[in-house]
Amino acid sequence: MYDFAIIGGGIVGLSAAMSIGQRYPQAKILLLEKESNWAAHQTGNNSGVIHSGIYYQPGSFKAKFCRDGCLSMVAFCQEHGIAHEVCGKVIVATEEKELPLLENLYQRGLQNGIEIAKITAEQVKEIEPHVNCLAGIRVYSTGIVSYKQVCQKYADLSRQQGADLRLNTKVEKILETDDGYVLETNQGAFAANFIINCAGLHSDRVAKLGNVDPQAKIVPFRGEYYELKPEKRYLVKHLIYPVPNPNFPFLGVHFTRMIDGTIHAGPNAVLSLKREGYHKTDFNLRDFMETMTYPGFWKLAAKHAEDGIQEIIRSFSKAAFVSSLQRLIPEVQADDVIPTHAGVRAQALMNDGKLVDDFLIVRGKNAMHVCNAPSPAATSSLEIGKEIASQTPAPKRFSVSVT
């Protein structure tokens, strides 16, 4: 019998295992991951950005956890020798109508306690010589890292604490017992007093296996990227973002220098026809039908029809994608970029068509379900792990030792 069983070996699940092990050093902790490696989905296919927290609603979990997580992630990387860089980024307005939005974003950043500065177009060019804009914001605390490496360190530390981490183990049923649950998997059954669902793209399904209705459904959105050819990397020094459309729930295509020196451009945001669909041709009938028969999806689609159509056009038209990039760097040409990896965002959507805008943790009987943890969850992972650990009960077998 385990004290805690965690479902999902992405960055949130691994952080939860590590944090619970630190809070309860004598606890028996189990983590189950269905893939053959850690960080196989959202975590391992993101842009590798350590976010500052400038975008998020003041007072929200995202705002607090991201701001604090930005600092704790950098400190963690420094402590454990993980390659990272606090390079900063610029957010720029390229049209007159974006200037009030840039000001609103600046004020939000101040409310969230972020170190930022307004900068002129000339000052932007001192940082990013090839950007064309009217004005910008400099965000000093933004950084870059490989979250796969971070996850591997989380896993190593969890094992050192005594956790039992198992790959290739898919949870198929959750059965409630008098003193907890039995998790039936493709590798046998495991009993635990308390379960924590960090299943990302499948978190809503796992919640329902545990007889909890999260009141939201995961709808997958694929983000597709291009990469600058090596001889064109000089066009981008750090990270360059547009002013986000406040009515659209994604940040818009941007330029990101990765920790390995490559420059990625993107992502767009299109509906994925498979929850783990990293290619345009990927299709899963169950995933597709769940989305198509969900009233919330059609309400969302109606609200954002124009933006959604533009995202689809960008997905199938390289010229349209490059045109979006040229708003930031006019010199970029179609021949300068090549397709690279895609990621899938697990976005929770409510029945009324509203996106779940914050991290969502739903409590069940002897259970906790993390049902919405898209970006900036990687940046915030240490803080989310601490929060999960703080909400877990002390194991029944011994008195608590909280640090």
Concise overview:
By secondary structure, the chain is of the alpha+beta class.
Commentary on this structure:
With 403 residues, this protein is an alpha+beta fold. Among the domains are: 2-43 and 148-216 and 357-391, FAD/NAD(P)-binding domain, CATH 3.50.50.60; 218-229 and 260-354, no CATH class. It has 11 helices and 20 strands. Strands 5, 6, 7, 13, 14, 15, 16, 17 and 18 form a 9-stranded mixed sheet that branches. Helix 1 packs parallel to helix 5, helix 1 packs across helix 11 and helix 2 crosses helix 11 (381-391). The relative contact order is 0.20.
Topology:
Blueprint: E1 2-7, H1 11-23, E2 29-32, E3 49-50, H2 61-80, E4 84-85, E5 89-93, H3 99-111, E6 116-120, H4 121-127, E7 135-139, E8 143-145, H5 147-160, E9 164-166, E10 171-177, E11 180-185, E12 188-197, H6 203-209, E13 217-228, E14 239-242, E15 254-257, E16 263-266, E17 270-271, H7 285-292, H8 295-303, H9 305-316, H10 318-326, E18 337-349, E19 360-364, E20 367-372, H11 381-391
Parallel strand pairs: 1-2, 1-12, 2-9, 5-14, 12-20
Antiparallel strand pairs: 3-8, 4-8, 5-7, 6-7, 10-11, 11-12, 13-16, 13-17, 13-18, 14-15, 15-16, 19-20
Helix pairs in contact: 1-5, 1-11, 2-11, 9-10
